[in-house]
């Protein structure tokens, strides 16, 4: 009897990580969707920033996230001294460049120049803080 109970406890313990992983996956999907909605909102606020619909916004949010995780991370490491000198404002420049690069990749997502990309990055940073607070 005791042996069966230990097996049941072990089975329950082994099942727990899958529930944690499912919760993590749901959080990631929710954040992805909310960032896509944030891109749609930014397209209404920032002139020169245009997203033609939800699907291009979803794809653009994914591409921006991948660019920030790869090339953006490299640029942030290389320009770390400049980021310190500007008290972190240079990160908006890097994020703006990643948004500008993503607009060249994703069809239906256009940014007309660096300044709309910069201001779009600033608004997205503010909305991103809100999204992170909501999905915690």
How would you describe this protein?
Helix 1 (2-45) packs antiparallel against helix 5. This protein has one domain. It has 5 helices and 2 strands; from the N terminus they run αβαααβα. The termini are far apart. It is 82% helix and 4% strand. 22% of the residues are buried. It is globular, with a radius of gyration of 20 Å.
What is this structure, in a nutshell?
With 136 residues, the chain is mostly helical. The protein has five helices and two strands, in the order H-E-H-H-H-E-H.
Distance between the termini: 41 Å
The largest sheet, given as strand count, sense and whether it forms a barrel, is:
2 strands, antiparallel
Low-pLDDT stretches are: none
Spatial order of the strands forming the largest sheet: 1-2
Radius of gyration: 20 Å
Structural class: mainly alpha
Number of strands: 2
Shape: globular
Q: What kind of oligomer do you see?
A: single chain
What key phrases describe this protein's structure?
single chain; 136 residues; mainly alpha; two-stranded antiparallel ribbon; 5 helices
């Amino acid at each position: 009897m005791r042996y069966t109970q230990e097996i049941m406890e072990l089975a329950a313990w082994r099942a727990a990580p899958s529930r944690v992983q499912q919760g993590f996956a749901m959080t990631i999907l929710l954040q992805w969707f909310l960032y896509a909605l944030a891109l749609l909102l930014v397209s209404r606020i920032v002139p020169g920033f245009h997203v033609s619909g939800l699907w291009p916004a979803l794809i653009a949010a994914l591409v921006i996230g991948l660019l920030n995780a790869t090339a953006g991370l490299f640029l942030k490491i290389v320009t770390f001294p400049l980021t310190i000198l500007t008290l972190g404002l240079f990160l908006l420049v890097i994020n703006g460049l990643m948004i500008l690069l993503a607009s060249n990749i994703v069809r239906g997502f256009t940014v007309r120049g660096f300044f709309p990309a910069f201001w779009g990055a600033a608004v997205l940073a503010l909305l991103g803080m809100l999204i992170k607070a909501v999905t915690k």
